Fold these 3 entries.
Entry 1:
Amino acid sequence: MGGVGGEPIRFYPVQLYDTKGEPNHTMVVSHAALSGETVNIPDAYTAQGYDFSGTKRFDAKTGYHSQSFLTVPMSNHESEVIGVLQLINSEESGAVVPFSTDDQQLVESLASQAAIALTNRRLIIQLEELFEAFIQLINTAIDDKSPYTGGHCARVPELTMMLAEAVTRTRQGPLKDFVMTEKDRHELKIASLLHDCGKITTPVHVVDKPTKLHTLFDRIELLDTRFEVLKREAEIEMLKKTACGIEDSEKAEIHADYAARLRQLDDDSKFLRKCNVGSEVMPEAAQQRVREIARYQWHNAHGERVNFLSENELENLNIRSGTLTAEERKIINHHIEVTIKMLESLPWPRQLKNVPEYAGGHHERMDGRGYPRGLTREQMSLQARIMGIADIFEALTAKDRPYKPGKTLTEALTLLGKFKLGGHIDPDLFDVFIREKVYLQYAAQFLSPEQRDEVDLAKIPGVVAGDG
């Protein structure tokens, strides 16, 4: 019972202390554990000083006769008792006899070796738990640093393992022979937990950039102030023109021009606020209008007449898609190089030697146009390609990003299908993702109800007829 066969232990535990908290020396096992002494009982039915009532009840129930007992404490290298080894009924020529002195010395030696083995195993488990806790510590730091990507560090490992298990289940296609041992699973799990550890070095104002003009604060507020300055300047100019004696018709025309100017500035302000969000692709006409507004002149705090937008503000507001400039994207992308550098610097044991390769390949593309190393499909392990799909699908459906809403299943699968056809992701893994309904398994756990729409696979690009 309780061994590798999985049979549960049906016996009640031996209590080391009674209900009053006093040491329990009436039971042989608890006495050996508490005292660290070996107990050798020739005959339990005649022994004095120990409670064998439980043993007698067991014998009466099973028909077995428990007679001789040898109970040996197992002590580790710090002389701490970590278990007790108990043998019942020594036999000699078919008869039950007491355990001899030689038997006791042999079992005590065996108990010592068993204690060492158990201590080593516990130490290995503790080190593994410590290592995983340290990984979680890194992810917690990233989470604390950026609440918008912290969830990503937790969800990608879940989706990675879902897809990996789906590949092991599939019985058709090129991946039907893929198998994973428990060690393989552990290695992939560790890699997925560490896949973005390099983000710990990425500046917060880049990771969390919710709008185009955001740095430590959203500079759109500065533009609002400048628009107010332009309005005041327009008002002053209007008052100056109407202060001297002019015809009413001319005065009305000045007032009309002033009102039109205010409407134009308000419209320009609303337009720049919309551009600042970066939630949709920016057409060339909109970019040109930003450039025209940038050439407006206003008086700054020093009384200097300068352009309405600085070069940096103009560059940011004219970002075609998203909220990041090309330079900021380089900073974001640099996290994977830091991840690889960090992971390759660690002395990985043999069973985890592939962690850097698995974790470092999730931004590569099957056609070799990814980063940071431009690897092709043939140069990557299947595990790294699995992680690539998990990373993309999580990002598409994530609803905690400041710059976009989470996509529905249909929208995300449509883009994922296009990525398959465009050489971005592994086509065979995409087929498994659809056929084994991994997307539904993930959606049930992580997507909101409004994201879990009804998917028509016939309309998803790249889906093989019959899958799903």
Entry 2:
Amino acid sequence: MTTSRISGFYLRSVRERLDDLARAGDLDAETVAFFRRGGGLELPIADRMSENVIATHGLPLSVALNFVLNGRDVLIPMAVEEPSVVAAASNAARMIRESGGFHGEADPSIMTAQVQFDDVPDPAEAAARVVAERARILALGDASIPRLIARDGGCRDLEVRVLDPQAGVLVCDLFVDVKDAMGANIVDTVAEAVAPTLLSLVGGKMGLRILSNLPLRRMSRVRCRVSDDALGGPQVADGIARASRFAELDPLRAVTHNKGFMNGLDAAAVALGQDWRSLEAAAHAYASLGGKYAPMSTWRRVPGGLEGQVQLPLAVGVVGGATGAHPGVQAAFKLLRVATAQELALVLASVGLASNLAALRALATDGIQKGHMRLHQRKFTTPEGA
């Protein structure tokens, strides 16, 4: 049975940590052997993955401990150069664990394909013609993605928006269930497949045919509680709640608040081969939708502690992309043990929430630099025998 609670893990040698993980994560021998070799990426594989390859660039692969998500222990791989990110997330998860861990739910994996037109003669009438042909357009989109249809995915709906009536700018958004993929290539295929038919319906000039990286129908929601005692007392909890409120009032603070949240999410996303640029773009865009840049996560006082929550659009995948090409990503997934894109999204949101709590707690107590600089200094200590 997997457990994410391994006392004294950071005090052990790398070899001893792998022994612990092999037991705690029930890892197979092949995965353990891969980690013992140092992981990494062989140059021939790297050359197939990218262009103009000359070498590989390594990051430390760590594991965040103490996470419980929807009642299940999870070991979270993180690839990041900053030691305090991993330590802080693990420590915050330990505090949250005492109150039951993280709880969340994720929407189906609906991505948006956009087909845009300029110089449409009568945009409102053109939009009505597209809506009237909804079934035919969705069927055309489905015909372009037969393998996804076989997995019960496919086009679910469409929406037409007139962006500029005077200039005749119109966009058709098609909503596609991409199942357990991130889905960029899938929705791009759909957009290009339906574009000629849409052009015949609306007229004008065809513009862009591509996904949106803001998947508003693919939301993930995570919440947790943490007690005053676990945090170090009610004064610490008060300080965290005030810091959270500060981020709601001031965009300058919200940016740094959100950077602390994304520290954890990005590190796990990189380790798991996700498109972290897409995740960053969507998260910050969503934080701005209200007309003022806002915090992604919030912390509120509740009796005896704090409640934290986050809601974000997260386009992630457990198939496709680097998940099928990178052996390190495959090993990281064996450690994490998630089966669906929704589960993965909740993991990333949870580690972001833990990182955010750790940063706010540090700010509310000793300040951010004390623990950060102590761990930072390790980078400049020459290893014995080097």
Entry 3:
Amino acid sequence: MAILECKALSKSYGLTKAVDSADIKIEAGRVVGLLGPNGSGKTTLIKLAAGLLSPTSGEVLIEGMAPGPETKAIVSYLSDRDYLPDWMNLNQLLDYFGDFYSDFNREKAIELSKRIGVVDNKPLKTLSKGTREKLQLVLVMSRDAKLFLLDEPIGGVDPATRDTIIDTIIKNYNPDAAVIISTHIITDIEKILDDVIFINEGKISLVESVDDIRAKHQKSVDAYFREVYKC
């Protein structure tokens, strides 16, 4: 059974279709890049899979179930926005995530926090933007979830921080789970991807493995994406 399946999935805002008849099936053990320009529908698709939005038509299934309490218990979602309260410190965040998610691995979160340099209990407002983004990712990746939905995890941070974030993603997810990474920064992320989904103006134009793209087109994913969308 696919971990994530979308069947003719659409989401409209008035006359605008943010996601237009998407058909996607993602199996366990895959790291998938959801790739598209800004405003292409990536965040809407991620939020539909996370159960934060309701489809206009079609359906989205997580392990065969429609989004609800059962699926939210096995989906770990990283927002593209910094949502951590400024007044909280690391211990308070660990307590919060531990209370909220039964699959939260506190020991893993502490270990990863040390690795990114968060070792004390200063309020989050004293941390840099990059450190806050890394910490937010650490908390999300410290769950034993089945599906990780990461919305623009490397957007707006410096190259060194990107490397740390990518390393955190690839080394700290359950191989029986699937990871979907939404991004418009393809070069830095494609080295960890198994498959890619191209989306633009709400439409899925490609669902293919990275190896097949390179073999068929003799190009990197980034170069092929630029060719397809004439970037």
